[in-house]
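Mods, move this if it's the wrong board.
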Amino acid sequence: MRKLATILLFIVFALPIQAQKYACVNTAYIMGSVPEYNQALNKVNKYAEEWRKELEAKQAELDELREQYQQESYLLPENLKQRRQDEMRTKEAELRSLQQQRFAPGGDLDQKRAELMKPVQDRVYNAIERVAREKNYAFVFDKAGSATLLYVSEKYDISNQVLELLGVKPGANPDAGGINPNATQQNPKNQQHRQQDNNSMDKKREPM
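Not the wrong board. Structure tokens:
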């Protein structure tokens, strides 16, 4: 599938589309620069952590019941043994059900993610579409984590234009996912230092 996508990408660029223009974006960089997205992500993570603790408490309760049963089972009459076993089975079923409810596909976490993050994502993609229409781009590729986008010149990266349309100053959040498309152009010395560091690391990896 990846090989086929790569071939299709080359076909697109090989077609006679002189009258058409193309660009790329880095959605990881854009999303990470939008404050509303980071706020929504933090809320989702808080829900996930709260629900993980809830499951851990249920698991600890079940483990305690099992440990008590193992210690006392030889002293219990058969009817109490059966009652304890039924109680443990019920607790185990409740734990599995809660795990599914909270973290299974389509569960509470997915619903919270859609509720809190999708509106911001939709706003970003609408901004990308608006920039593409205004600049008359026929194709806009996402280079964030893409295995098929082999190379795109930074002059075709419209990520910062999208951020400006969203009212966000490009590069304002240094922790944003991805790399500011203009960062290497603004800091050529840093790029040179990184290349020297990479060369040093390559030398260290050479066999003796």
